[in-house]
Design goal:
mainly alpha; 4 helices; 86% helix; 0% strand
Amino acid sequence: METLIKSLRRERHRKEDLEFIRILLDTLISGDFERLAEDKELLFETIDEMYKILRDAMLNSKDENLLDAFEHIAVLRALINYPDLSPLKLLKDTKHAIDKALGD
């Protein structure tokens, strides 16, 4: 019974987090993105918060929609944080992460 209660609490919390992200996205899409983009630090903090929430949700779910949302936010986060990011650098970083995962 306790496991069921914990599971229900997690699910409620996850839905609240996703609703929060939906509100942020609606606000940004409706025209506040340009205004927010003027403050790079605030923009990054907003995107980073969405990234963290979606990452946690994705790691605890098999929902392809969450994976898609996380991928989009991860790309946006990288573009904002690293404006000089290149495809080659991304490939090298990906290889490095895979090497570490394999214990190399």
